[in-house]
Amino acid sequence: MSSPPTGVIHDIGYRHYDGVRLSRGYAATALALNSLRGVFGLGRTARSKIIPFLIAAVMLLPAVVSIAVMALLKQQAVGYSEYAVTMQAVLALFLAAQSPYLVAPDLRFRVLPLYLSRPLKVLDYVAAKFVALVIALFLLMAVPLTLIYIGELLVELETPVKHAEYFSSMGGAVIFAVVLASIGLALASFTPRRGLGVASVIAFYMFTLAASAVFFGVLMSEGQDPAAKWSILLNPFFLVDAVQVNLFGTEPTNGEGYPPGLGPAAITLLVVALALGALFLRYRKAASS
Amino acid sequence: MNPVVASITYRAMLGRKRIWLLAALPLALLAIAVLLRVFGGGDESTAVTLMQTFAIGTILPLLGLIAGTGVIAPEIEDGTIIHLLSKPIGRPTIIFTKFVVAASLMAAFSVVPTFLAAYLLIGTEAGIATGFAVGVLFAGIAYAAVFLLVGVLTKHAVVVGVSYALIWEGAIGGYVPGARKLSIQQWAQSLADQLSSSPFLKTDVALSFAVPAMVIVTVGAVIWAGQRLRGLSLTGDE
């Protein structure tokens, strides 16, 4: 004899969420902010703070020295517009060390679908990561520049304060940040391994650095000045410096000048568009797999 | 030497995307040599500049980084090294095998293209091609050993290695003459200078310092890495 079924559905007190549902924009902003903190190692282990903070300190060093020189010798030591180009190795190192952090772990552990199950779209994800890196790189350049500017305002030099140069170098810093971030993220996103990502970004930088130097040197020594000036633009730092020079009328850092006109700016736009397009396509593919 | 470990390492190095990084840089060197030749820059000073800034200054440290850290760092990073360490193979043997693999990759991917690029530009004139090929060979072996050690010592091997090549050898070595003594790239140039009679090639480090330094650094790095691997602790990902 079998007993009648005794199954019961228990009320386990499940409740619906009645609160405010925050928008797609909120999710993207949160991701960007979290990524920005992560780039500097905030909210991560102490060991991952070492490299970004060390690099930030090195970036500040010339600014501090410059203020000291201004106070003691009443002379300007480091110009505004040349700051990023002078410190290019440090900036490239930061880009190479930190951009894989933004893209590699999510690809490696295949957690992209978790992000995309939220209101976030692929475009928002990519944009959030990109904006985070742009802001990080901008801060890296803008903080020392602003320090020098404040120093120049406080120390009374005989030469007038270079307001225009400061503001144009800040504009230049934005362009530097956008170009570097797009290249760094695009290169790093092609491998889910952090070490390989670091290697490919730095390989790209060192390759363009050496290639532009060799071509510039050889073409200059053969008297082909216009071609030499175009070839130095292979290095992204000189490319952006050329845009800066043509756009804001700052002093060229390479000592020889750049091709005039809108050519460098057009190349810069093309590079950024290509890099961001590649990044977006990479993530659209990763999201569907 | 353990042939099984060596074959697995070769497969890991050449089978993945890494081979593109390994192959792309030497191909770029050859392409630039061809371009310079076509545009009529095939003189001795151009060849020396190309070799110094490109072959020794860029390709060599980058390949050393990719090969040297690549043979061991990824395994430590994702923890699969534990399968290798649990086998009855001496840890110094593992390191030595990995070092031989990295050094042979350096020889294949940096020495041959360096010789070819110099040969394309100026032929065998002034012994530049042979000189730089020999310099790159020995410096490549030293780089492989040093970056292998860095790969065992730290998780941020690539960043540390790049800092050495870019900041110490590149930036500081450019301003501080003393820093050049401790630069593998300068040792390579001393070797190249010894074998070449070109007046465009000037070096700061004496050969009597460079050769012993290279030997000590290579042997020391391999031994230290072997000792370090004996006490390796695997910590989780951050």
Question: Would you kindly provide a written description of the structure presented here, covering whatever features stand out?
Answer:
- The complex is a heterodimer of chains A (289) and B (238).
- Chain A contains 11 helices and no strands.
- With 289 residues, chain A is mainly alpha-helical.
- Chain B has helices at residues 3-15, 18-38, 44-70, 73-77, 81-85, 91-122, 128-153, 157-175, 184-195, 207-230.
- The two termini of chain B are 33 Å apart.
- The A-B interface holds A 44-45, 47-48, 51, 89-90, 92-93, 96-97, 190-191, 193-196, 198-200, 202-203, 206-207, 209-211, 213-215, 217-219, 221-222 and B 17-18, 21, 25, 28, 32, 36, 39-41, 45-46, 49-50, 53-54, 57-58, 61-62, 65-66, 69-70, 73-74, 77, 155-159, 162-163, 166-167, 170-171, 238.
- Chain A: The chain crosses the membrane at residues 50-73, 85-104, 125-150, 170-190, 202-220, 262-281.
- Chain A: Keywords: Membrane, Transmembrane, Transmembrane helix.
SS field, number of helical segments of chain A = 11
Tell me the distance between the termini of chain B.
33 Å
What ranges of chain B have pLDDT less than 50 throughout 5 or more consecutive residues?
none
Q: Which whole number gives the mean pLDDT of chain B?
A: 83
